[in-house]
Amino acid sequence: MNQLFIRLRYLNKYPIIVGIFLTLLISCKKETPEPLYTKGVITGRVNINAFESDNEENKYSDIVVKAYGPYGEKSTSVSYENYYASFKFEGLGNGTYRVSVSKKGYGTVEAYSLKIFENDTVYAGYFDLYKQNPYATVPLSIMQDEPDSQNKSIISFTIGEHNSPLVMFLSSRPDVAYNKYQSVHVNMTSDNTKFLIYVNRMPFITGTKVYCILYPYAGEYYGYFNPKYGVKIFSSIIPSKHSTVFSFIMP
């Protein structure tokens, strides 16, 4: 108690010293660097893949486009003209950028390592957004079928009821997920009660315990490579909607 009183009395006695100390502390905060050039441009196109009752132009409302670079974050809007939706960032400094395009109910697509030098104009690419299905169901039961002695190139699963196309992610680790996997497969059969994958399309050696998980997706094999995770990300996947993790031994 006495020590606390002494410290408070010291601070009250020397307010100028305390003020100088706080000023120096704040001034040490890292500041955003100033760019050498400020006329860089990033452009891109956007496509919405879903039937809408509204006209084409209205499909492209409420799209959020952001650029992340060495000088902070910038936002821009999507313009629609002659049946094309596009965006443009202007006044960018030199450096490396990441562009993110998202729309509620459609997920997010990103482009990485966009480098601007001096007053470059960089094309970020074509951003495809697929409508997510919030009503999609996942199978509650998944069971590996007995191996077919006549056809050892296929692994077959019997799956429970569901109402959406499914994509399977596989890994040798039990924490397999849409952003943590070593192999990915869409169903190779139109039979809604089965899920087939080809043995020669998997990177696992014989005897490996392989963990799997199923997610509903838009039915299009589209995604983007995310260097943070080192894998392709499907933008139409809802991360919280998936089956339980199941496993099998690689034949």
Protein model, in words:
10% of the residues lie in helices and 41% in strands. With 251 residues, the chain is mostly beta strands. It has 3 domains: 1-30, no CATH class; 40-130, Immunoglobulins (Immunoglobulin-like, Sandwich), CATH 2.60.40; 142-249, Immunoglobulin-like, CATH 2.60.40. It has a 4-stranded mixed β-sheet with strand order 4-5-1-8, with no helix packed on it. Strands 3-2-6-7 form a 4-stranded antiparallel β-sheet, with no helix packed on it. Strands 12-11-14-17 form a 4-stranded antiparallel β-sheet, with no helix packed on it. A hairpin with a 4-residue loop joins strand 15 and strand 16. Residues 1-11 and 20-27 have low confidence and may be disordered.
Give a nutshell description of this structure:
With 251 residues, this protein is mainly β.
Keywords summarizing the entry:
Immunoglobulin-like; disordered N terminus; 17 strands; four-stranded antiparallel sheet; mainly beta; four-stranded mixed sheet; about 40% strand; elongated; single chain; 2 helices; 3 domains; about 250 residues
Structural class: mainly beta
Mean pLDDT across residues = 85
Main beta sheet: 4 strands, mixed
Helix content range: under 10%
Instruction: Please count the helical segments.
Output: 2
C-alpha Rg (nearest Å): 26 Å
Topology:
Layout: H1 2-13, H2 15-27, E1 40-49, E2 64-69, E3 72-76, E4 79-81, E5 84-92, E6 95-103, E7 107-116, E8 121-130, E9 142-144, E10 154-159, E11 166-171, E12 183-186, E13 194-198, E14 209-216, E15 224-226, E16 231-233, E17 246-249
Parallel strand pairs: 1-8
Antiparallel strand pairs: 1-5, 2-3, 2-6, 4-5, 6-7, 9-10, 10-13, 11-12, 11-14, 14-17, 15-16
